[in-house]
């Protein structure tokens, strides 16, 4: 699986889903703990577990253009 | 991150509910020797006859009894005897209790009894569950319709109550109610895997793989939940609290087992999973909040924390790549996808309402001794 390209998929009105082997880093370069193969990154800015999505975009009425 | 565990009451001791829960294998019905090997008791003639057959291998007249009971029953979802009988018949397929004889899984009379109860149960669901207008069968439209359906504000919320108001006893009851499904979390939806192909199959496996720990046994969600109930001072033996949970809780589990085990209901089990995932991440955050407020530690809350992140991933995959893609591939299943989602919301709402109503009367949501 590691020779496959990483994909980042935008889900309408929701997060970005990341599939594949990638290092997630904080602004100061620390690695973000990852416990699952597919992760969802917050796009609305309101998640309580950033950089991951916690579903809050649904309650806030976050909308994307697609 | 062990918020709350240093102060406040010790949540694992002194809870009233712990002492009133029946202990597994307790001889509450001493003459009921036929079912001594399963950790629960029958609730009427149909469940007694089904258990007798599955545990002792003695063919009983349960199909005729089921016919009679179904004809006489006005609300099958609240019928303890029929819901337990159906639960036991499904448990035989899951392999949930070693005492249920494996050779009888496909016994024609047991299958016949299952069909009698299932037919009535499915008809009741199709009669009572309100299904919204169907979207066009595209992945985008179906995902949006499912998010709209699951996002509609319902009545009082169990998760908000747990976050802010629930007592320690009520939190224990909540965990007990959850054991029926969550100690075997994800299994009902796995029945659908071989019945799917292509995109929806890959999507379901992507979700289920995460549910089953992604290759790490200690991360299996059912295992995380077992750890949580043990840390809360409860038993993680499957079925230990079956005698305590009401028919609506069994009905919620039976709904997904019925959808999962019947190939003709493939659309419904897929819709069920989508709705289940879409109503999970935010409630689980609130459950964790409430449990920490009551003094439970990370050992109990980890399961709920995990689901905030996991189900925010799963709901996207379930809505678009699973349910949406299935509707595109199989437009004939669209109506059942939406029905399955609506049924999930309805049966789980009934469990939530049952708990909130009991607690508003300052009563237990679990079955009392007089109901057994």
Question: Can you walk through the features of this model?
Answer:
The complex is a heterodimer of chains A (66) and B (372). Chain A is globular and about 35 Å long. With 66 residues, chain A is mainly beta. Chain A is 8% helix and 18% strand. Chain A has one domain: Ribosomal Protein L9, domain 1 (3-Layer(aba) Sandwich), CATH 3.40.5. Chain B is 61% helix and 0% strand. Chain B has 16 helices and no strands. Chain B has helices at residues 16-20, 45-56, 62-72, 80-94, 108-128, 139-151, 158-164, 168-182, 187-190, 198-211, 221-231, 247-261, 266-278, 281-293, 298-329, 334-360. Mean pLDDT of chain B is 92; it is low at 1-9, 13-20 and 22-35. At the A-B interface, strand 3 and helix 1 of A face helix 6, helix 10, helix 14 and helix 15 of B.
Write the layout of secondary structure elements.
The complex is a heterodimer of chains A (66) and B (372).
Chain A: E1 7-10, E2 16-19, E3 38-41, H1 56-60
Chain B: H1 16-20, H2 45-56, H3 62-72, H4 80-94, H5 108-128, H6 139-151, H7 158-164, H8 168-182, H9 187-190, H10 198-211, H11 221-231, H12 247-261, H13 266-278, H14 281-293, H15 298-329, H16 334-360
CATH topology of chain A: Ribosomal Protein L9, domain 1
Helix/strand structural class of chain B: mainly alpha
Helix content of chain A: under 10%
Number of domains of chain A: 1
Name the biggest interface: A-B, 21 and 25 residues
Beta-strand percent range of chain B: under 5%
**CATH secondary-structure class of chain A:** Alpha Beta
Main sheet strand line-up of chain A: 1-2-3
* Element pattern of chain A in H and E: EEEH
Radius of gyration of chain B, rounded?
Answer: 20 Å
Count of distinct strands of chain B: 0
Q: How would you describe the shape of chain A?
A: globular
Question: Can you identify the CATH superfamily of the largest domain in chain B?
Answer: Heme oxygenase-like
- Report the major sheet of chain A: 3 strands, antiparallel
The count of domains of chain B is: 2
Q: Work out the helix count of chain B.
A: 16
Give the CATH topology of the largest domain in chain B.
Heme Oxygenase, Chain A
What are the segments of chain A in which pLDDT stays under 50 over at least 5 consecutive residues?
Answer: none
Please identify, by name, the CATH architecture of chain A.
Answer: 3-Layer(aba) Sandwich
Distance between the termini of chain A: 30 Å
Taking all Cα atoms into account, the compactness measure Rg of chain A is 13 Å
């Amino acid at each position: 699986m590691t020779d496959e390209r990483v994909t980042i998929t935008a889900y309408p009105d929701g997060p970005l889903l990341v599939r594949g082997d990638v290092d997630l880093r904080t602004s100061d370069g620390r690695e973000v703990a990852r416990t699952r193969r597919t992760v969802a990154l917050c796009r609305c800015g309101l998640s309580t577990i950033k950089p991951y999505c916690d579903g809050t975009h649904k309650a806030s009425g976050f909308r994307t253009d697609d | 991150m062990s918020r709350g565990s240093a102060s406040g009451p010790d949540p694992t001791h002194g809870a009233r509910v712990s002492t009133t829960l029946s202990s597994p294998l307790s001889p509450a019905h001493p003459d009921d020797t036929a079912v001594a090997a399963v950790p629960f008791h029958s609730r009427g003639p149909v469940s007694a006859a089904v258990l007798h057959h599955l545990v002792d291998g003695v063919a009983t007249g349960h199909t005729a009894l089921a016919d009679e009971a179904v004809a006489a029953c006005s609300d099958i979802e609240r019928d303890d005897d029929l819901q337990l009988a159906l639960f036991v018949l499904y448990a035989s397929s899951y392999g949930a209790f070693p005492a249920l004889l494996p050779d009888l899984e496909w016994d024609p009379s047991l299958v016949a009894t299952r069909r009698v109860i299932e037919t009535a149960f499915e008809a009741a669901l199709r009669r009572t569950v309100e299904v919204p207008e169907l979207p066009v069968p595209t992945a985008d439209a179906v995902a949006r319709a499912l998010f709209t359906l699951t996002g509609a504000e319902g009545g009082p919320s169990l998760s908000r109550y747990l976050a802010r108001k629930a007592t320690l006893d009520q939190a224990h009851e909540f965990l007990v109610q959850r054991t029926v499904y969550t100690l075997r979390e994800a299994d009902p939806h796995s029945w659908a895997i071989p019945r799917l192909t292509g995109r929806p199959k890959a999507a379901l496996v992507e979700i289920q793989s995460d549910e089953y720990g992604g290759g790490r046994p200690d991360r299996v969600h059912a295992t995380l939940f077992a750890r949580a109930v043990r840390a809360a001072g409860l038993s993680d033996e499957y079925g230990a609290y079956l005698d305590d949970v009401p028919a609506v809780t069994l009905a919620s589990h039976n709904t997904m087992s019925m959808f999962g085990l019947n190939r003709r209901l493939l659309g419904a089990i897929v819709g069920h999973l989508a709705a289940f995932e879409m109503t999970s991440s935010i409630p689980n955050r609130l459950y964790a909040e409430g449990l920490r407020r009551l003094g439970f530690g990370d050992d109990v809350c980890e399961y709920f924390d995990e689901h905030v992140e996991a189900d925010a991933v799963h709901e996207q995959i379930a809505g678009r790549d699973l349910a949406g893609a299935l509707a595109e591939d199989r437009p004939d299943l669209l109506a059942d996808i939406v029905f399955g989602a609506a049924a999930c919301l309805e049966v789980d709402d009934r469990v939530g309402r049952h708990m909130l109503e009991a607690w508003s009367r300052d009563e237990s949501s679990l079955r009392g001794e007089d109901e057994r």
